[in-house]
Amino acid sequence: MAAEAHWYVAHTYSGYENKVKVDIEKTIENRGLQDQIFEVSVPMQAVTEIKNGVEKTSDKKMFPGYVLVNMIMNDDTWYVIRNTRGVTGFVGPGSKPVPLSPEEMVALGFGVPEGTVLHEKKIVIDFAEGDTVRVISGAWKDTVGVITGINEKKKTVSMNVEMFGRETKVELGFSDVRKL
Q1: What is the CATH classification number for the domain harbouring 60?
Q2: Any residues with CB less than 8 A from the CB of 77 and at least 6 apart, and which?
Q3: Of 134 and 105, which is predicted with more confidence?
Q4: Span 40-58, mean pLDDT?
Q5: pLDDT score, position 83
Q6: Is residue 119 scored above 60 in pLDDT?
């Protein structure tokens, strides 16, 4: 019976993930291991950050310090990965690598039919409930208020403003406010 390929997680020095990926891919090519090590991955996630009212989307590593490797585990493949510069070891008890389960792979977005969305874009904002903000655009421009709620799905914040001598709740987009 032929050995089966599984996904394993290699621990790396933080910041070396892409270099480790490239080095492993070079070693696979140089040693002719394409039939044993099939794929090396550094999972990325689109993150939208809003700072000072400016929205910027960038890719961030989902698991800093880790590289995923789809391979048939044997002495040769273990040696190649373990001795790649920047790799500190495999994830598993002691020195025994443990493959990821199919459920863990689906949760990471692997082995899922193309077009299926598992992870929504993560949004990072530079304000929180209770923060004082200034409205920078729209009908409430230059109004200062305290955030009373944040809705990440709708990308809005709620705050109370004074209207006709009364506190009135308004909802504004993330890019319409700036933290003071």
Answers
A1: 3.30.70.940
A2: 33, 36, 37, 71
A3: 134
A4: 81
A5: 94
A6: no
Q: DSSP string spanning 111-168?
A: S--TT---SPPEEEES--TT-EEEE-SSTTTT-EEEEEEEETTTTEEEEEEEETTEEE
Say whether both 163 and 131 belong to one domain.
yes
User: What is d(CA 112, CA 118) in angstroms, rounded to the nearest whole number?
Assistant: 9
For the chain, what is the total number of helices (H) and then of strands (E)?
A: 3, 12
pTM over cut 0.85 = no
pLDDT at 116: 42
Report yes or no: 33 and 74 within 8 Å, Cβ to Cβ.
no
- Shared domain check, 117 and 157: no
Chain center to CA of 88 = 21
Of all residues in the chain, the percent with pLDDT exceeding 70 is 90
Pairing verdict, β 122-125 and 166-173:
unpaired
Are 82 and 139 members of one domain?
no
* Plot region of 31 (φ>0 → left; ψ -120 to 50 → alpha; else → beta): alpha
Residue 1 falls inside a structural domain:
no
Please give the residue range of the domain that contains residue 87. Answer: 6-122
In a domain, 143, yes or no: yes
Q: Which pLDDT value is given to residue 35?
A: 94
pLDDT score, position 32: 93
